[in-house]
User: Fold this.
Amino acid sequence: MPKAPSFFLLLWLVLLLASAAADQNLRKTTCPLCNMDVKPDMNATILGNQYVYACEMAGHIESLQNDPSANLGLPEEADISIDAIYKDAREIKCPVCSKSFDELTYAVPWISKGAQKIYTCSKEHAQLVFDNPTKYVAAQTSSDDFCYAGAAVNPTGSVMFNGFQTAIGGDTSCLMLLFQPWVITSEVKYVFSFLGVVLLAVLLEGFGELREFVEKWLFRVYSIVSRQTDYVLMCGAATPRVRRNSDALIANESLALKVGHTPQVSIVRRLPFWGKLVLAVMYMGHLSLGYLVMLVIMTFETLMFVAVVVGVGLGFVIFKDTEADKLGGSVDPCCST
Assistant:
C-alpha cells in the first residue's frame, strides 16, 4: 500500500492532467483574422462555455466579438471527437440548447484563417447561431474607460494596431508598450509613456554623439603606435613630414607614390583590446536604443510616433554640432550608428 504523501501526490497529478485536458488546445489555435498564435486572455465568450480566441493585434478580438456575423462561415457537419483543438474540451455545450459534448455534431466556423468553431448539436441550431450570432457571442459593450483592457484580472493590450490610430477610447484596445506589464490604461500612464518615448529618442541622438566623442578620446589618449614606414621618392631628397592619424582605427597601410610628391612617414595607431571592448559595448547599447525606438514606431500608435519624432528633433537640437563641416549619424533611428 503506498504511503499517504505519495498517494496524494499521485492523485494531485492525475487531477492536474485531467483539468489540463478539459480545455481547448490553444497551442493549435490560431487567430481567425491573421492566423497568428492566440493569447489566452484575448478571448470573447460564447454561450455553452465556448470561446473564440484572438492574437494581440489591435482590433482583432473586438472585430470577432462586436461583428461576429462578418467573421463566421456557413454551418457544416463536424466531428468534435477528432478535432485537434476541441477534442479534449469536454465542458463545452451547444450554445442554443446546452446539450453536452458528446451530442455536438455541427459547427459554425470562424473565418477566414485558423480552425476555430462554434459547435452545436444540430444543423438547425448551427443555422440559428449563423443567422443571429450576436445572441450567442458576448459582444463588447462601450464604456467610459480610457481604453479597453480586457476582462481578465491583469489588463491586456495590443502591441500593434491596424494602421495609425490612438489607443484612447473605451472601445479601443489599450496599448502594450514594449513590455507585457506596460499596458497603458489611464491618462496618467499615457502622459508618462509619451514623455518616456520622447526621452528615449533624445537619448538615441545623445548616445550617438557620446560614442563619437569617446572614440576620438580613446585614440588620442590610449592609441598605440604599431608600425612606422618611410616612403622616400627616388627623384630627389626632401624633408619628410609626419602624418599622424589619431582619429581612424587603422591608417592607410601605404602611401601612393607619385612623382613630385613630398616623401612622408605614416604612423599607424591602434587601440588596445580593452578600448575596442569599450567601443563594442557602447555600439551594442546604441543599437539597442535604436531598436527600442523602432519598436515604438511599429505599434502604429499615432501619438507615440509623434513622441519619437519630437524626441529625435530635440536630440538633434541639443547634441548635434550644426556648425561642423559634416554632420554624423543617420536619419534612420533604428540604425543611427
Q: What stands out?
A: Residues 13-22, 230-259 have pLDDT under 50 and may be disordered. DSSP finds six helices and twelve strands in the chain. Helices lie at 4-20, 60-66, 123-131, 187-222, 273-297, 302-319.
